[in-house]
Amino acid sequence: MAHDPEPQPAEELDAAAVRTWSSLALAALGRSRTDIDAINVYPVADADTGTNLYLTAESADRALTEAFARTAPGVTDGTAPDSAASSLPEAVRAYAHGALIGARGNSGTILAQLLRGIADVLGAGPAGPAPGPLLAQALTRAAEEAYQAVAHPVEGTMLTVAGAAARAARAASGTAADVARAAYDGARAALAETPGQLAALGEAGVVDAGGCGLVAVLGALWQALSGQEPEPEPVQGPAVPVERVQEPCAQEEGGPAYEVVYLLEAAEEAVDRLRTALDGLGDSLVVVGGDGLWNVHVHVDDPGAAVEAGVEAGRPYRIRITHFGDERRRASAPRAQRAVVAVVHGEGLAALCGEAGATTVPARAGEPPAVADLLDAIRRAHAREVVLLPGGAELRAAAGAAAEQARADGVRVAVIPTRSAVQGLAALAVHDPETGFDEDVVAMTAAAGATRYGELAVAERQSFTSAGICQAGDVLGLIDGDVAVIGAGLPETAEAVLERMLGSGGELVTLVLGPEAPDTLAARLEAYVQQRHLAVDTVTYSGGRHSAPLLIGVE
């Protein structure tokens, strides 16, 4: 859970104030997440609006933090200047981009577009602090773009609250802090009126959940600029907790059964056609973004058609399909005592880990899962205790953040620092849900740590490596993450890697072959091990699509 920073009054909005705003907004949404989930009745009563807003804000905050880190003294990684957060325009662009790539659900997607609208104004302005009138203009653009992003805007929702905040901001005068306070007050007043504008809210006796989250975000903006903390109960009105409705599926409510969300690389003209296509497939359509990158959210009965429409428009990725009925049944079902969540590269590995009882998170080269994806998997596992296998050193931070959030939900989580899929397989092989949690984690950690891992990859360009200079097309043999062998072909390089790995001993070799590996490679390597190391056994698996050419494990 994020900790509240000590806000320093800024009066005008600059890069540092944006960072403070982000931290305060994340903390505020973290505190109110459960309460917002409890009043989520529209458009689907799936009790996740608070969580979706929090995860979206978490992604935005992480992107902003990384942007600031790239401009810290002593950083010399060659980061492009336009990706850093040394000025207000750069900070707001980083903040909005982080929200876009991590937006969750209907409410999170709208929040991402609100932040983009702010960035469209402040990101095009001067590098110095934004005065009150410019902030009012930014909040106005945010509300306008949010309305435009929703295929069929409905009043009494988050959009209504955003519109009221913008009108109040325009009517205000003074500093950016004064404008932020006016927007916050306008949003609170509008939120209290939402039950009278939307029948579903009035019948349940609650205010709009997304609007409630937006009030928290605007309160954080005012706090960042003024140094004054919003009231402990910033929203006054008819909001009361409600029990989550437990229908077997969304069709019984008269709505589509699936939520489909994906990021999309596409031209704006293609996205216009996509909006029309998706609007004919379902409802709750929200498409946000721009400059070639979009976040698409829609509720449909045919998720395949929604994804296919994205393929026709451009390149969809990070595709998430959720069946509302499955989510409700999972929420009402008793929790298992223990589960394993594993990040895997390759469909074959995913099937293998699934057969072993793990909940899997797919990963591809260049597209690592986000914190929200890991947290989703932990929740899908639906267990009191979860062992998380990140499968790569680059995912340890995300795994730790997901584990922290799951612990806040009452789940006991342990992260085993696996750095390769073969270490995850070794850990799964000794997993015993009948033992105590700590004992199981120790055994799995020991098995993973005792497994040396190798990988074959093909060099994309000339580069300096720990084994010398490689050329594009060379086969690289990595051992424990470092390039140890540079070869011309997969079989020869694999044999050289095996020989080095077995030179320090071993009893079992695990080979995971990717789709690029020759059909004869498995038999050749098995024969190689048998001839040179008689006491060593070999097991071979298919990694499937999206896996490396070859993974090697030696235990």
Would you kindly provide a written description of the structure presented here, covering whatever features stand out?
This protein has 555 residues and is α/β, with parallel strands linked by helices. It is built from 19 helices and 16 strands. The strands form four sheets. A six-stranded mixed β-sheet has the order 13-12-9-16-14-15, with helices on both faces. The protein has a four-stranded antiparallel β-sheet with strand order 2-3-1-4, with helices on both faces. Strands 6-5-7-8 form a four-stranded parallel β-sheet. The longest helix is centred in the first third of the chain and has 24 residues. The N terminus is likely disordered. Helices cover 48% and strands 18% of the residues.
Which sequence of strands runs across the widest sheet? Answer: 13-12-9-16-14-15
Total strand segments = 16
Unreliable stretches: 1-5, 73-84, 233-252
Shape label: elongated
| Estimated share of beta-strand residues | 15-25%
Number of helices: 19
Which sheet architecture does the biggest sheet show?
Answer: 6 strands, mixed
Distance between the termini: 37 Å
**Structural class of the secondary structure composition?**
alpha/beta
Helix content: 40-55%
What would you report as the Rg, rounded to the nearest angstrom? 25 Å
